Amino acid sequence: xxxxxxxxxxxxxxxxxxxxxxxxxxxxxxxxxxxxxxxxxxxxxxxxxxxxxxxxxxxxxxxxxxxxxxxxxxxxxxxxxxxxxxxxxxxxxxxxxxxxxxxxxxxxxxxxxxxxxxxxxxxxxxxxxxxxxxxxxxxxxxxxxxxxxxxxxxxxxxxxxxxxxxxxxxxxxxxxxxxxxxxxxxxxxxxxxxxxxxxxxxxxxxxxxxxxxxxxxxxxxxxxxxxxxxxxxxxxxxxxxxxxxxxxxxxxxxxxxxxxxxxxxxxxxxxxxxxxxxxxxxxxxxxxxxxxxxxxxxxxxxxxxxxxxxxxxxxxxxxxxxxxxxxxxxxxxxxxxxxxxxxxxxxxxxxxxxxxxxxxxxxxxxxxxxxxxxxxxxxxxxxxxxxxxxxxxxxxxxxxxxxxxxxxxxxxxxxxxxxxxxxxxxxxxxxxxxxxxxxxxxxxxxxxxxxxxxxxxxxxxxxxxxxxxxxxxxxxxxxxxxxxxxxxxxxxxxxxxxxxxxxxxx
Length: 506
Prior knowledge:
This protein has helices spanning 58-62, 127-130, 172-179, 255-269, 287-302, 318-337, 371-378, 385-398, 400-406, 453-456, 468-472, 489-502, and strands spanning 7-13, 46-50, 65-67, 87-91, 95-98, 104-108, 114-118, 149-156, 162-165, 197-203, 206-212, 239-245, 276-282, 306-309, 357-360, 366-369, 414-417, 424-427. The chain is of the alpha/beta class. It has a six-stranded mixed beta sheet, sandwiched between helices.
């Protein structure tokens, strides 16, 4: 017998995108034919699809880790890499998907319904795709993005229209076997049914499904018996049918007390208050059962319940019960058909949205978060200086540097981009294009950049000294230092005065 599993944890890992190729076309008489590196292939996705042949989540219980194939790296001669193959996983109809925070993100109903569990990474651009009029021959390529990794919880909720609830051995399995083609296990001991059973019932022109939920007992909400483990399978039901045992041999039980105990457990579970209730008084084929049914029928009707006396063994009263359930299902389907389709709301990203956020941390560092900038970091090959420069240009063009200046960042500040295992930490150095006013206290003078100190450093202008021939021509002057043409002031004054007295112009 196949083991029934209705709740599992799935670790979905999509394929990694292929790296771009760095290649230069070389042909005879064309030594530099230009870049021709192709792009990397996209990684495969992990996709869940509703399959009618799958009735349990047992496969995911044995193999919870599922990974799609990765894309191939690009080739030269303008050839892109092969894409990774998608991993398609079949799940039962009615599977609900929750994320790692426990929030519902998908409800898979209907054969063929699909859900993207993990998206494959995009392939990196080759140097052909990075070439431009300003960058004629890039010597680098972008790396492929890693595939998405998600931890999901899959929970199966049976897609049934009617649910049978009641105490153990109340005759639920016998009842579903009598009104449908289902053949559940039936025995004369409690908790014979360990998993929900589904059966298809035809009432006139209405066809619907009935679910047999394992028996509930007082204290089920605290874990007694099977607890409330399988009540998730009745959350989609239109109505609940209380199957009450009128032929029980236990003296401390009666149908009314059983009904109140089950209703108390349903209230503790929650979410089923709006479901229509029908009462089926079972086992009227027994003398004591018929007497008990006649005794409590009027009391249950006064409580507002629609009551039917049935016998799963003799099939007495089953037709009336089937048509009653069929009317409720048909009415619900007609009301559902009048509902308007869900309106799809598109929320495009605003034009002025930068797509990143800069946060100043208490320790003086800065964290940059944003889907675009984090993707650029993942695509950068930090072993290639040209690729790092390309990343810096992209960040500056996006406005990351201006935002860092506004937050108080200075040269040498620790900057972090991303989060978790993909986080990149580096010491920030502003680019040369930054304005002088924005460089805060890192300028010695306006127009002078401390980063370019060695480039802008001016050597002292050498003193203009006389050559040996020029010194030889200066012998008639009485100078203190014959190697400099500068004459001392006293000598100049005395010679001028002597010239004026003698009148000698030599």
